Each structure stands twice: as structure tokens, then as C-alpha cells.
Amino acid sequence: MKKSINAVVASAGIIVGVSGFTGNAHALSWVISPDANALAFGVTAVAGVAEIGSPDSGLQPSGIFGAGFTVNSNNFAMEFDSDLYSWDSYSAPTGPGTGYWDAFIVTVSTSGYYWDLSPSDPVVSSPSTFVWGGTSYADGVLENYTTAPLSTDTISLNAGNATYYVSIVLDTKSLPDSDINHPSWGSFHVSLVPEPETYAMLLAGLGVLGFAGYRRKQVTAA
Questions:
Q1: Which of 90, 89, 80 lies closest to 148 in space, CA to CA?
Q2: In a domain, 111, yes or no
Q3: Which helix (H) or strand (E) holds 15?
Q4: Sequence-distant (≥ 6) Cβ neighbours of residue 149 within 8 angstroms
Q5: Of 32, 6, 4, 33, which Cα lies nearest the Cα of 20?
Q6: What share of the chain is helix, strand, coil (3-state, %, to 5)?
Q7: pLDDT band at residue 46 under the 50/70/90 scheme
């Protein structure tokens, strides 16, 4: 049975459009992060104005803007492509122009959604976690991460029969580096990979998750 969910994000956060497919072990339903709120016809991140294509001088709210869903399965795998932009950085603070600021994150966990797990900088890439946020801060260069044509990134977690929490967010909030400077925005196109035993019952789900955020540097005092 095909299940479609469509959402539109205005303001400072996310544009979500999803066509998911439901099998015996798969049901796709979006849950909104605490820095966003659900509307009758979509999802909107509160605060700010539309920031897609913003200049470096723009401001963005500090928050975790995104959405997620759960999958009950014996294992989990997901493919996605992305088109991400940032005037900021998410790299080791080794000198001027570096530091853990804006981060685009796609992650899967059996413990809960990303925003419920008290994340802190830095978030580390792994087979179950994709992280990108540019490499340089305040250098006036708009960095871009775009998946190569005909290729995808993947995340997976094999924890046996479990509930898998998938989170897709732009994090401009996590400490110790919180920041409202140098905006970031982008989009993800997501496709679930079905288990072999249920493949005949499923079609690949396609989702679009776009993020837009502004923020200005706000380092929390120790």
C-alpha cells in the first residue's frame, strides 16, 4: 500500500515532501523536531525568514531544525543524495576559520531521535551517521556539498529486531559551539532500502527534506 505524506516548511527551517511505502514491517510517518512545529498542511521551523540563498551577512536562528521517522525492522538501511550549502564550518577548531558550528546530520539510532539524545559538538560521521557542515568559517566562501550524479550516500544500522529512529536535521544549536551567524541551507532526497524478504512488498520511498537556517556566531561561555 502506498502512503504519501507531504509537508512544506516556511520560515527558518525545512521543506519536507515524502512519498513512503508501507509493508508489513515498514510504516513511514514524520515526527517534527522540537525547534519546528506542525501545521495543517506542513511543517515550519519557527523564527527567522526564508533563508535559502542567503548572503553571508544573514542571521539564522539557533536550533535543531528537522524531522524524522521510525522503522520497525530486523535491520535498517537508507540511501540519499543531497545538495547542501554553508557559509559556516564544522571542522576541528585548529585555528581561525575553523570550529564546530552548522552541521547537516542524517542519523539512525535505536535509542531515539537525534534531538532527544542531548547531542554535543562534534558529531562524528560513521556508518549510521552522515555529517557535513563545511570546512571554513567567516572566509566569505559559500561551500557546497552535492552528491555526484547517479550516486548516493548511505546510512545503516544492524541491531536486530528493533525500532530504528531516523533523524534528518540542520543543527545550529548543539554546545559547546552555538551560532546564529553565517547561514546554511540545503536539501536531502531519501530512499529507504527494503529488506530482501519484504522487497516484493515495497517500492523505494522518495523524500525531499530541505533545510534553511540563519544564525550569527554565539559562543557559549564556559
A1: 80
A2: yes
A3: strand 14-21
A4: none
A5: 4
A6: 5, 50, 45
A7: very low
The answer as to whether 164 is a domain residue is: yes
| Whole-angstrom distance, CA of residue 166 vs CA of residue 23 | 17
In a domain, 201, yes or no: yes
CB 165 within 8 A of CB 70: yes
8 A C-beta contact, residue 73 and residue 26: yes
Residue 124 structural domain: 23-55+100-222
Domains of the chain: total: 1
How many whole angstroms separate alpha carbon 197 and alpha carbon 203?
Answer: 13
Residue 163, domain member (yes or no): yes
pTM: 0.77
**170 phi and psi angles, rounded to 5 deg:** -110, 115
Cα 69 to Cα 53, 127, 192, distances in angstroms: 28, 18, 11
193 HSE (CA, 13 A, CB side): 15
User: For residue 151, what is its C-alpha cell?
Assistant: 550516486
Q: For residue range 68-125, what is the model confidence (pLDDT) as tens digits?
A: 889 998 999 998 888 888 998 999 988 877 889 999 999 999 999 999 999 999 999 9
Q: How far apart are CA 214 and CA 13, in angstroms?
A: 9
**Residue 21, all three cell numbers:** 511505502
